[in-house]
Amino acid sequence: MTGRRVEFAAHDGLRLAATDWPGAADRTPVLCLTGICRTALDFASLAGRHAGARRVVALDYAGHGESARATDPSRYRPEALIRDVIDAMAALHLHRVALVGTSFGGLAAMAIGAMRPAALAAVVLNDIGPHIEPMGRAAVVELIGSDPSFTSLDAATVWLRQRHPALAVLDDAGWRAFTARTYAEGADRLWHPRWDIRVGQQAVGDAAGAPPDLWPFFHGLGRLPLMLVWGQESHLLNADTVATMRRARPDMRVVSLPGTGHAPTLEEPAAIASLDSFLAALP
């Protein structure tokens, strides 16, 4: 089933876009939130498995994918992007969702759990937790803050594969497809990031400021069904943090993926099996 692109205005009028796959109106919809340099394209596989049975919506944050670029880069600060998610939920009539959040999307899930607790029916955190390793944060800023302007998709694939954390599920064809979801060919015939590179410093780097204590936000998810997908080679989420999360939430479903860094694609066989059964258990 093909998703349809929908557009709507954020509170300040900036145009935002999402991909919406229809599903049964009486079942809990799934809202998919990407990492800070990813787009709705990453969730096509998940939507292909669940659309029809339940509605699936994947959002492009401001400055990403099909959403508009902001004039003022401070528009990409975390609090603004999270407010956009809340605006999107209102505009798209997503009143109570199962939220699947990769990296920054998982942080947004925890924030929404504190700000709008009734809006969440369940949460899947993809390789993110309430403690973020600082070296990992720096690596993310370095990767997403530049535009190498590749001459071809093949050149982009080689570059990205050399620098991106390990993704054990991807073979040669998989890396090419992943790269095509990361970069797009522009009018100049060069391949550029699918996000505004100013996002890096504003959302993750120094301009974002020190992250707050996220443990209270994580504990605030205590009433909800919760699942964690963890890449064991992740530079953002380490084993100690995962262990502490498990002690706090012994009922949390955990999928550990060896040989996988930040962030799992959610196309790993173990992730697919666990995620699909987790969602299937929801009304």
Automatic annotation (TrEMBL):
UniProt cross-references to Gene3D superfamilies, sorted A to Z: alpha/beta hydrolase
Residue ranges annotated for the AB hydrolase-1 domain, each copy included: 29-269
Gene Ontology, cellular component aspect: membrane
Membrane-spanning parts: none
Keywords from the UniProt entry: Hydrolase
GO molecular function: hydrolase activity
Record's keyword annotation contains Signal: no
Family annotation (InterPro entries): AB_hydrolase_1 (IPR000073), AB_hydrolase_fold (IPR029058), AB_hydrolase_sf (IPR050266)
PANTHER family: HYDROLASE, PUTATIVE (AFU_ORTHOLOGUE AFUA_2G14860)-RELATED, MONOACYLGLYCEROL LIPASE
This protein's name: Alpha/beta hydrolase
Organism: Neoroseomonas lacus
